[in-house]
Design a protein that fits this description.
alpha+beta
């Protein structure tokens, strides 16, 4: 859940304009896992919200040790993301290409 402030055009989701809150006063948990029809990866706990820089920095936690070997071992597998801003950032795409991780368009 997030409360948005009134902002200038194009700034609606900047960090300074979003205050996170959980329903009923609770917190939140962010997890990452890979699943497919025949296999799955381990589930990984993410300790912070992700912007593009943090998403790219988790390559040592997710991309290198988990996602890349899993995709390599399962021929034809591609990474599917939800088009969130950290996933679609140009720098993120460069990191994925550098690690030869195929991404679903």
């Amino acid at each position: 859940w997030a409360e948005l402030c009134v902002s200038k055009k194009g700034e609606r989701y900047n960090d300074v304009c979003v205050r996170e809150r959980g329903p009923f006063g609770g917190g939140f948990v962010m997890m990452w896992a890979g699943i497919s029809l025949h296999t799955k990866t381990q589930m990984i706990l993410i300790h912070q919200n992700l912007n593009a820089a943090r998403y790219q920095n988790i390559q040592n936690i997710i991309l290198q040790p988990v996602a890349n070997p899993h995709i390599t071992a399962n021929r034809g597998m591609v990474l599917m993301q939800d088009n969130a801003t950290p996933h679609t950032a140009r720098t993120t795409q460069q990191v994925l290409q550098a690690h030869n991780i195929p991404v679903l368009d």
